[in-house]
Amino acid sequence: MSLPQLEFLTIVAQPVHSILLDHLLIPTDLSLSQCFNFSDDKSPIPAYLPKKLENLQNVSRITSINLSFDPGMFLRIEGPSGSHYMFGNWCGVGLSPSIVDARVIQSLTLFRISTVERLAITEYSASAPTKTEKSPVYPMLLLMSNLRTLTLTDCLILPFLFALNPNRNSSRAVVCPKLEEIVLYIMNKDKDWPCVDELLEAMKERASRGSKLPAITIVCPEEFVPAKQVFKLKDYVSRVEYRLDDVAPGWDTIPDDVGYTGYESDW
């Protein structure tokens, strides 16, 4: 069933609306919004997606992903002709936030993310395992062959550094070979701020493989790491910027025109 004249559609179900989406051909130039409560120990995203993602024509070519965990999930997937928004909540499930965060990241591989040019993640908390392949960050970034900008806000950063460092992933592949900029917002002193040595190693190894990073920006409220250590990155990164600022971007801003009705007030 195609819906060429559709302007607004609200489906309230748990999780039966994913079955209905299997039979709807979502038109282009339309924003699709989904809100759900996550109440089991499985990954929250697959159950709320149609089995055939071809139905989501409006996000057939994804260029940007914004993902925020605070304390539930806000996911914004955008392409040149449409957007897909998912709002999730799993309070009371009994799983640690790091497990849920990891499973959401794994679910992103369900989409065609090879065309993603911009990835922004806020408050990711899953830790880095010993073997990078078992980390949900590695397979996700491995698929993002066209990623240009990676922005991490108040996240545990080491899993991303391990995935981006060919010496840390046993495949020794250069992940995200077209990466042009990494932006790190370190807003919480208690977060797992990576030592400069780990950052240096990742950038040095990428440069030795012919994938020297053009730019890196580090923003934090105070000088968590001495500036002279940060600027050691200049040996392996073309442009290094270190700013003392307490303003982080609001990636989870909800546009007014996406059919969002504030279901989270009932959570």
Q: Strand arrangement, largest sheet?
A: 1-4-3-2-5-6-7-8-9
Radius of gyration: 19 Å
Q: Please indicate the percent range of residues in DSSP E strands (runs of 2 or more).
A: 15-25%
The average pLDDT score comes to 80
Would you report the number of β strands? 9
Low-confidence stretches: 256-267
Q: In summary, what is this structure?
A:
By secondary structure, the protein is an alpha/beta fold. It contains six helices and nine strands.
What would you note in describing this structure?
There is one protein chain. The protein is an alpha/beta fold and about 270 residues long. It has a domain at about 115-250. Helix content is about 20%, strand content about 20%. The longest helix is centred in the C-terminal third of the chain and has 13 residues, at about 195-210. Mean pLDDT is about 80; it is low at about 255-265.
Question: Which features does this protein show?
Answer:
single chain, 267 residues, alpha/beta, 9-stranded mixed beta sheet, 6 helices, disordered C terminus
Helices and strands, with pairings:
Layout lengths: L16 H5 L9 E7 L26 E5 L4 E7 L2 E8 L7 H11 L10 E5 L14 H7 L5 E5 L4 H7 L16 E5 L10 H13 L4 E8 L6 H4 L6 E8 L23
Parallel strand pairs: 1-4, 2-5, 5-6, 6-7, 7-8, 8-9
Antiparallel strand pairs: 2-3, 3-4
